Amino acid sequence: MLNVHHRQMHEETVNLARSDADGYEIILRRRHSGDTAYDELIINGVFAMDSARTGSEIVLAEALGPQPGHVLVGGLGLGFTAAHLLDMGATRLDIVELSGPLIEWAHQALTPTLGRVATDPRVTIHHGNAATLLSGQPTIPGLFGPWDGICLDIDNGPDFLIHPDNASLYTTEGIKTSLEHLNPGGRMAIWSQSPAKEFWFDLTSIDQNATERLVEIESLNRKMDYAIYTVHAPA
User: Fold this and answer.
1) Are 231 and 187 in contact (CB under 8 A)?
2) How far apart are CA 140 and CA 97, in angstroms?
3) What is the mean pLDDT of the chain?
4) What angle do CA 7, 8, 12 make, to 5 degrees?
5) pLDDT band at 220, cuts 50/70/90?
6) What's the rounded Cα separation, in Å, for the pair 20 and 101?
7) Confidence of residue 47 (pLDDT cuts 50, 70, 90)
8) Which distant-in-sequence residues (6+ apart) come within 8 Å of 202 by Cβ?
9) Quick check: 82 and 76 in contact, CB under 8 A?
10) E strand or H helix at 80, and its extent?
11) Measured between alpha carbons, how far apart are the two ends of the chain, in Å?
C-alpha cells in the first residue's frame, strides 16, 4: 500500500498553456507519472494527441516515401510528424496550423519537439485553415504550391471531425481538389483515429494504388487501430 500511495503522489497533470483566442479551446498540458512526463493536446475538450504514442505520426510522415521533398503539413499538433519529415531529409516544410496560440507556443518552445520544429530553417509555420487552402480557396498570404507531398492531421479522421467545417475535405471531390495541389505523382497522407471504410472506398475509386495502413496502439489497457491513408496525384 505504501508503494501505491507513493506512486499516486507523483502523478499529476499541469497545464502548460490554454487559450480560446480562435473561438475554440486548446490546452497544452503535461502529465507527470513517476519519473516520466508526457505532453498532451486537448481541443474543445477532446483529446487530440500526446507524446506517449507517436507511432502513427511517424507512419504518417513515412507514407510520403523516403524523399519527401517540399511538403505541406496540415496541422502542427505536437510536432512529431514535422520533426520526422525533417529527419527524413525534407527540403522544406510549410506547416498550416489553425490555432494561433499553438503556433506561439511552438515559437516559445513550450515542448522540446515544438521548439525544434519552429526553429528549423526549413520550416515555415502559417496561421490558417489547411482544409480551406486545399479546397481551392487560398487565404494564406505567401503560401503557394504545388508540393511534393501533403500530410494531413487536422481532425480525428473522416468519421470524427474536430472541426465540423472540414467535412467537405473528405469527400471524393474534396480529395480530388486537394490532389491538384501536388506535383505529378505526389502523395497525400491522411491520419484517422480508426479505419474509415467508406472513405477508403472513395480513395480507391480515385487512385487504384491508394493504400490503407493500420497502426496498432494501446491506450488505457485497450488496443485500437489508427489508420493512415495514402493517395497519389496523377503522374
Assistant:
1) yes
2) 11
3) 91
4) 115
5) low
6) 9
7) confident
8) 171, 172, 175
9) yes
10) helix 80-87
11) 64
Measured distance CA(134)–CA(112) in Å, rounded: 29
Q: For residue 104, what are the contacts with CB-CB under 8 A and spacing of at least 6?
A: none
Average pLDDT in the 172-195 region? 96
Instruction: Find out whether the peptide bond into 146 is cis, omega within 30 degrees of 0.
Output: yes
**In terms of DSSP bridges, do strands 36-43 and 46-50 run parallel, antiparallel, or are they unpaired?**
antiparallel
- Given strand 147-152, what is the order of strands in its sheet? 123-127, 92-97, 70-74, 147-152, 182-192, 222-232, 211-219
3-state secondary structure of 210: coil
Round to whole Å and give the CA distance between 179 and 150.
9
Residues contacting 154, CB < 8 A, separation 6+: 74, 75, 98, 130, 131, 162, 163, 166
User: Model-level pTM?
Assistant: 0.91
Please give the grid coordinates belonging to residue 58: 511517424
- Let me know the angle formed at the C-alpha of 99 by 96 and 104, rounded to the nearest 5 degrees: 95
C-alpha dihedral sign at 37, 195, 163, 69: positive
d(CA 196, CA 159) in angstroms, rounded, equals 7
Of 88, 114, 84, 86, the closest CA to residue 99 belongs to 114
Task: Give the residue among 75, 72, 29 at the shortest CA–CA distance from 52.
Answer: 29
With 0-12 / 13-18 / 19 or more C-beta atoms within 10 angstroms meaning exposed / middle / buried, residue 13 is exposed
The alpha carbon of 160 is separated from its chain's Cα centroid by a whole number of angstroms, namely 14
pLDDT given for residue 219 in this prediction: 66
How many helices and strands (H and E) does the chain possess? 8, 11
